[in-house]
Specification:
Elements: E1 4-8, E2 33-41, E3 54-58, E4 64-68, E5 73-74, E6 78-81, E7 84-89, E8 92-103, E9 108-114, E10 120-129, E11 136-147, E12 150-153, E13 156-161, E14 167-172, E15 185-186, E16 188-193
Parallel strand pairs: 1-11
Antiparallel strand pairs: 1-16, 2-6, 2-16, 3-4, 3-5, 4-9, 6-7, 7-8, 8-9, 9-14, 10-11, 11-12, 13-14, 13-15
């Protein structure tokens, strides 16, 4: 049986009215999901990225950088551990963190996978509705980042185009005064559990 999860990069459309037949369960969701899943970006406002999948590409020091199709290795076994996207590779256990390749243009930082002690990107599982099928799905809402026991709330996860026709995963901090353009945009993310 295939179950679905969704990750949301937090996007609210002001003033829009959404009519939906979707009814979500009232059951609270845990912050840990150990059944492996594949992440699919989901944003009907941006057809160029809607339904693209998250891949990882081996980088220096055992890190894995996060891209969309067609760049990188397909990953079907992501998990969520205490709100952090986690995976185990030959390089060891790595987690989604914030803090690499800062961009002065839009004041964003790379979100990537590493075993190092960078601030963890934190997500909260909630119920939502698939925008294409109107079926209930589990969604992870980006909450902020955590370094040790210190949690910093806010900000957004976003993606932007790369030089090779793909998109990379970025962190857009709260109060960001960097130049915002259509090259960086907030998005909905969807992840499907592997069979």
């Amino acid at each position: 049986m295939r179950t679905s999860l969704s990750l949301i990069g937090l996007l609210a459309v002001a003033g829009s009215t959404i009519i939906s037949a979707c009814v979500t369960p009232e059951t609270p969701l845990p912050n840990t999901i150990l059944e492996g899943f594949r992440i699919q970006f989901q944003n009907t406002s941006y057809p160029a990225v809607h339904k693209l999948h998250m891949n990882t590409k081996l980088a220096g020091g055992g890190d894995r950088h996060i891209f969309t199709d067609p760049v990188g290795d397909k990953v079907y076994n992501m998990t969520l551990v205490d709100g952090v996207i986690t995976n185990t590779w030959a390089e060891g256990t790595i987690r989604a963190v914030i803090g690499g390749e800062h961009s002065n243009i839009d004041n964003t930082d790379k979100i990537f996978m590493t075993g190092r002690n960078n601030p963890y990107a934190i997500y909260k599982p909630t119920w939502g509705c698939d925008p294409d099928t109107d079926l209930p799905q589990v969604e992870l809402v980006f909450q902020g980042h955590r370094q040790g026991t210190t949690f910093v709330p806010g900000g957004w996860s976003c993606i932007r185009p790369t030089y090779d026709g793909a998109y990379e995963y970025r962190y857009y901090p709260p109060g960001n005064t960097g130049e915002y353009s259509t090259s960086s945009f907030f998005l909905l993310l969807r992840s499907l559990l592997a069979c």
